[in-house]
Amino acid sequence: MNLLRRSLRRLWPTSPRNRRLAAGAAMLTGAALTSVSIFATGPTAVPEPRTEKAWPVAVMPAMPERRSPSFTAYGRVESSRVAELATDLVAEVAEVRVREGDWVEAGDLLVGLADAETSLLVAEREADLAEQRARLASIRSERDMLTRTLDQARSMHRIARDKLARHQELLDKRLISRSLLDEVVAQANQASIELENHERRLTDLPHRIAAQEALVAKSEALLARARLDLEKTRVRAPFSGPVLAVHVAPGDRTSLGVQLVDLADAGAFEVRVQVPDAYEPRFQRHLELGHGVSASLPNGRELPLSRLARQVRPGQSGLDAFFALAAGGTMPPLGRVVDLRIRLPEEADVVALPIASLYENDRVYAVEDSRLRAIDVERVGELHTPEGEYRVLVRSPELYQGRQVITTQLPKAVSGLLVESSGV
Q1: CA gap 186, 199 in Å, rounded
Q2: Which of 258, 260, 301, 384 is the most core-located residue (most Cβ within 10 A)?
Q3: Helix, coil or strand: residue 387
């Protein structure tokens, strides 16, 4: 034993530096031996088998049937007829009966202009017409008189010619003087002149009557124009509707083309709606075929589709549809934006699904043997159930009766994904 101690003492370094190195080496060697012994004597790990996760989903059976697609849109109330009432008279505004926002009926007085000048003009035209009619009556009387006395004038002419012939014979027999024959010749010539004047006047009378009738017609037209101007001093509503603006006040002086009142026709109220691109072809098809497309306001008021625009307005991507708003009841103000529920004619073989069933707007997933299968669908429209639930209407030949469709939104839905389904 003493010999072993002496041997180790000879092997142990004597300098401090070598002692520290030897101590460190001994510690590292001990740690390495300890680690090897732990790994050598430790238990062997057995790997656990991996199990595929089943995602819980809710499903519902597909039930294809005929349904009316619908969708919600916003529209603006407009009127296709807005009258900007103006005048072509130069007159003072005597009265204004309406204000902006008033509701008027067809024929109601809106603005009254001073009518003193136009009333005087009407009286002047009436007197002129009476004068022209009196002249026409006088000419017609003259025609009747000349017609009645034509035979008498011809008889006097014949008598004068016969008298001239007898006196000519007497002169040839030297029974009368030459001076007496000259007097008879003058009488015969005078009778011829009178007959010719009589016939000429009678021939000219139809032209005089026609000219006078034209003057009477002209006077009647001038009188009608004066009465029209008098009527224009009473500006009345051409149709029923709201007053949009009043541009004059009593005391203003009007001139040609001065705008007085703006009035909208209640019978031409309509709601303009921009049609989504997906629905535009169906709108055009239904309108051409005469199928009913209608819309309803939140209060239940029905609005039929009247027409479809033929051009896209600047700043829009689709065409505008116009839904007629029949007069009656409470009319919404022009320019108001309203919420519409638009209904299209029934479509065959469509399935109503919750919005959560739809992926990327054109795909749903069916469940087959607890795994998902993607189905491409055509989105037909929307639907609100009687219970107020929102549904999306889709169509696909693969959505047959009773096929299970998931109604849950999965973050990583792909065909073949394992799911655990439950009914809704």
Answers
A1: 20
A2: 260
A3: coil
